[in-house]
Structures are given as C-alpha cells and as structure tokens.
Design a protein that fits this description.
By secondary structure, this protein is α+β, with helices and mostly antiparallel strands. Helix content is 26%, strand content 11%. The chain has a two-stranded antiparallel ribbon. The longest helix has 12 residues.
C-alpha cells in the first residue's frame, strides 16, 4: 500500500505528486475531522435555490450526473 497526499475541494481531488499507472487503481480517502466544516439544514435556502434555477432549462439530475462523470 502506498500513501499519497493531496487536497480535496469542491468535488475534485488534486494530488501533490502525479501517479503513473497503466490501469485504474482503487483508492481510499481519509480526511482529518478538523478540516471539515459541518453544514446544518439552516445553511440551505430552498427559495434561494429556486430563484437561482428559475431560468434553467433542462434536468437538474442529468446535470449532476454529467458533472460527476466528467470529474472521473
């Protein structure tokens, strides 16, 4: 097993050093508890979300799926 370090932010993992591999590898990500900011339900506003998405034409679910596919 090899340990590497990096930074996870906004859905993306950036490694400090690149890994050369010819095939996909399985990984586990462990993070320090003090580096996570906890969110509460009161941090979200459904009205604000509706306002931000009022001109969005399409499927929000499809956009989320596509974004996650592109992140791989």
């Amino acid at each position: 097993m090899t340990t590497i370090t990096g930074t996870y932010y906004n859905g993306h993992l950036k490694l400090e050093k690149p890994i050369k591999t010819k095939k996909p590898i399985n990984v586990k990500v462990t993070y320090k508890e003090d580096s996570i900011t906890r969110l509460a339900l009161s941090d979200f506003s459904f009205l604000e979300s509706q306002e931000l998405l009022k001109d969005f034409k399409g499927s929000f679910s499809d956009e989320v799926i596509e974004e996650r596919r592109n992140a791989l």
